[in-house]
């Protein structure tokens, strides 16, 4: 039973990730024509490199994320309150449920943001700037 629950959860996660990829590809296709020819080539190259991910790269990413997740979990455990009996009628404080999947997704999102901000700093030449609301200013 536990195997089927995990299998179902992974299947759902894979469909969710596939939908995210589909939407991000759509966003890229919509934005690409507004970029200069040079930036279009840079983006297309980055997209092609992203598609060429190898099994060893994936294993490395997974190991890094697992290590980060283990580190975060150990920090949470260190913050845990000592087990002392509570007076009758008081409930212990509860934390939101965090599963390994949501933890990895959160770390994945953080890693993606860090990677994008690093590329953002290196990839702009200063002649066009895009505001947070998506409008281009010169």
Automatic annotation (TrEMBL):
Q: Which GO terms describe its biological process?
A: negative regulation of canonical Wnt signaling pathway
Task: Alphabetically list the UniProt keywords.
Answer: Nucleus, Repressor, Transcription, Transcription regulation, Ubl conjugation
Residue ranges under compositional bias (Basic and acidic residues)?
Answer: 116-138
Enumerate the GO terms in the molecular function aspect.
Answer: transcription corepressor activity
Taken from the UniProt entry, a GO cellular component term is: nucleus
Q: Which domain of life is it from?
A: Eukaryota
InterPro entries in the record, alphabetically? Groucho/TLE_N, Groucho_enhance
One Pfam annotation reads: TLE_N
Q: Show where the Groucho/TLE N-terminal Q-rich domain sits.
A: 3-67
Localization (cell): Nucleus
- Region Disordered, as annotated, extends over 115-138
| Iron-sulfur as UniProt keyword | no
Keyword Oxidoreductase listed: no
Q: What family is reported? A: Belongs to the WD repeat Groucho/TLE family.
Could you tell me what this protein is called? AES protein
Q: Which gene encodes it?
A: Aes
């Amino acid at each position: 039973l536990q195997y089927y629950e995990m299998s179902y959860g992974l299947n759902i996660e894979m469909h969710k990730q596939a939908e995210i990829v589909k939407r991000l590809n759509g966003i890229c296709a919509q934005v690409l024509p507004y970029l200069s020819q040079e930036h279009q080539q840079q983006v297309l190259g980055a997209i092609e490199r992203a598609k060429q991910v190898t099994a060893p790269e994936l294993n490395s990413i997974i190991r890094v994320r697992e290590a980060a997740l283990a580190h975060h979990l150990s920090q949470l455990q260190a913050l845990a309150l000592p087990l002392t009996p509570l007076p009758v009628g008081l409930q212990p404080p509860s934390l939101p449920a965090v599963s390994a999947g949501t933890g990895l997704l959160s770390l994945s999102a953080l890693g993606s943001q860090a990677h994008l901000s690093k590329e953002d700093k290196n990839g702009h030449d200063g002649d066009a700037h895009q505001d947070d609301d998506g409008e281009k200013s010169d």
